[in-house]
Each structure stands twice: as C-alpha cells, then as structure tokens.
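Consider the tokenized backbone below.
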C-alpha cells in the first residue's frame, strides 16, 4: 500500500511516499481502507520532532481518518463493511490503517468521509474545550484567535451549535472573508487594530466570557485583558511559536481562569466521556446542525505541501487528504 513515511525528522519536504506492507490485525483490531485523512498543525510539528511527543523515524504521521472496515480481529463486533471514523495514534496518511476497536467511531454508511476525517481533532478539541473546560453557557461571547484556522473554524461552528456569540480575530483579507462565510458574528483584524480595545468596544466595555487561544505570542495577553469578570481563557496551542508569559495578578484582578486544554491526553484518560462527545458531534452532523466541509483537499503525494501551509501561516479552514 502507499504510505507517507517520515524517515528523518525535519521539514515536511523530507517526507517520502513509499510502498509498504498493508498492516495486519490483532484480535482487537480493525483494518480501515482509508477514504480520507485529516491533516493538522500537530502533524507538521511531529515530523519536525517539535511536538509534545517525539517519535523516532521511520513512522507514518496522521491521527484522524474516515473509511470502511475491510478486515477485523476475532474480538471485534463491528461488521466488515462498516463506515467508521478512526483515531490512529500514528499511521493515518496511508491507504490502510490498523487500529484498536476502541479507537473507532461508527457512522452511517453515507457519512461524508471528508467530514468524518475532519471531525476528531479540531471539533473534538474545541468541543471538549468549550463544553468541559470552559463550561460554556448559551448566550456567552467567545473570542476566537486564529479564527480562520483548523481550530478556529471548528470553534466558530461549534459556538453556533452551542448558542455562543463569536468575535473572530484574523490576520488577513482572505481569512476575514472565510470566517465571514462561516457566519462569524464580529471580525477583528488583529493585524490592523488593537485587539483588547476593539474587543472591549464590541462588548460594550464588558469583555468576552471565553477566549479560544490556539495562537499564543503577544495576542494571548491582549485577549486575556479583553475578558470579562469570571472569564475563561482556553490555552489550546502556540501556532505563533512563542509561549506567552502572563503575570498572575491579571487573573486575580479580572477573576479570570487560564485553562489548559490537551484533548489527546484527556481522550486517553477519559474514554467514556470522549465517546459521549463523539456521539454528540456525529449527531450534530447527522441533524444538519454542523456542516463540516473541508476547504483544502490534497492527494497523498501533496502531504508535504499541506503541512507547509500550517508552518507558513497559510492554512485556512480544514485540510484533508482524499484517497
Ligand atoms: N491542545 C490541543 O489538544 C490541541 C489540539 C489540536 C491542535 N492544537 C494546537 O492548536 C494550534 C493551532 O492549530 P490549527 O489546526 O488551528 O492551525 P492553523 O489552521 O494553522 O491555525 C493557526 C492560526 O494561528 C495563527 N497564527 C499566528 N501566528 C502564526 C504563525 N507564526 N504560524 C502559523 N499560524 C499563526 C494564524 O491565523 P492569523 O494569520 O489569522 O493570525 C492561523 O490561522 C497548534 O499549535 C496545534 O498544535 C492543540
């Protein structure tokens, strides 16, 4: 089968497409014929050895897929031919992936594989962040930093499902256009205006209830300063490359909580709650409350281009590889 292989840590251009053996299944595994694989910022960090977890090459990146079960072990009940979303620990950027039966989510056979491959990481993370880490309430206001990115667009869409008003911070014209097309309530050009002052003025001086922060750097403190009393600042990632250092007195005087969000780790420690969230996310799609349409569709051979976009601040919306 064809697979992307990281043979040496470094720039995405070092990735190779190789013919390797189709994986075999153990008694607890399913073999998925992959129809689409989601591409994420952490993949670009992983192949460079810059992610929280450092893997020794060779390995195949890719942690979210959607496809059809082609083979299974003796202890797997889900039938061959079922459409599933899979969360492989690695190996998603390949024509086939074998993974434990507990790491798949069954979906209807007509579920769009491009939506399925887009759902786990961005929508899983932002739903966990809003629902379980921020305890978001209907009617609250959410400031989304890097709002046109993968995490950002999932935040905008889930905020709509959860009844939150969105203020979307973006850094270019095309990004502004994209978040408007998703129904952003307000857009702030944080490359042009003062983020804190603009957000304060958009909220009548009150500030926002929740900040979704996948960006880091100096905008994090500006966003924190633009939160309302009892606000929650969700720390998702540092796409900007700079980890901000915040004075703790800010949390005291503003009554704000800075809340860390590591979705991948939580899924390992809380499988029951993770499964509950996936049931809800899949039902949002099935009930047409959530329309997941990836903006960028690549071939397997174009994987390194897709990853470069994340590192060059060019990714807009969700990116998938279609097989
Ligand atoms: N905590 C978790 O469980 C979890 C889960 C998934 C992802 N993450 C992390 O979340 C972060 C964002 O992921 P994503 O998929 O949303 O990425 P993305 O699609 O590339 O979006 C990131 C956004 O950050 C902004 N940005 C500002 N400075 C940047 C720079 N120097 N390079 C790149 N982007 C920059 C960009 O928006 P503007 O140009 O508009 O500023 C961009 O749209 C990553 O650090 C990722 O590792 C964390």
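A designed sequence for it:
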């Amino acid at each position: 089968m064809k697979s992307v292989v990281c043979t040496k840590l470094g720039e995405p251009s070092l990735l190779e497409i190789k013919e390797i053996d189709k994986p075999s299944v153990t008694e607890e595994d399913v073999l998925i014929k992959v129809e689409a694989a989601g591409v994420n910022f952490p993949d670009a960090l992983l192949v460079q050895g810059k992610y929280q977890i450092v893997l020794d090459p060779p390995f195949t990146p890719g942690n979210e897929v959607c496809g059809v079960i082609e083979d299974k072990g003796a202890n797997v009940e889900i039938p061959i031919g079922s459409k599933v979303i899979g969360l492989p620990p690695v190996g998603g950027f390949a024509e086939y992936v074998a993974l434990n039966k507990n790491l798949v989510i069954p979906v209807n056979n007509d579920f769009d594989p491009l939506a399925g491959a887009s759902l786990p990481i961005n929508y899983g993370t932002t739903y966990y962040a809003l629902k379980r880490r921020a305890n978001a309430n209907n009617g609250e206001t959410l400031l989304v930093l890097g709002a046109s990115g993968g995490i950002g667009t999932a935040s905008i869409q889930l905020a709509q499902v959860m009844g939150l008003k969105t203020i979307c911070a973006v850094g270019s014209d095309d990004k502004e256009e994209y978040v408007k097309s998703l129904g952003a309530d307000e857009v702030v050009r944080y490359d042009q205006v003062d983020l804190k002052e603009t957000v304060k003025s958009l909220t009548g001086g009150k500030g926002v209830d929740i900040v979704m922060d996948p960006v880091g750097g100096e905008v994090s403190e500006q966003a924190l300063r633009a939160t309302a009393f009892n606000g929650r600042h969700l720390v998702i990632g540092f796409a900007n490359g700079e980890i901000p250092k915040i004075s703790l007195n800010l949390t005291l005087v503003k009554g704000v909580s800075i809340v860390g969000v590591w979705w991948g780790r939580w899924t390992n420690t809380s499988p029951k709650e993770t499964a509950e969230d996936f049931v809800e996310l899949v039902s949002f799609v099935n009930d047409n409350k959530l329309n997941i349409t990836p903006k960028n569709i690549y071939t397997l051979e174009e994987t390194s281009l897709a990853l470069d976009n994340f590192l060059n601040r060019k990714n807009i919306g969700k990116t998938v590889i279609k097989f």
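The chain has a mean pLDDT of 97.
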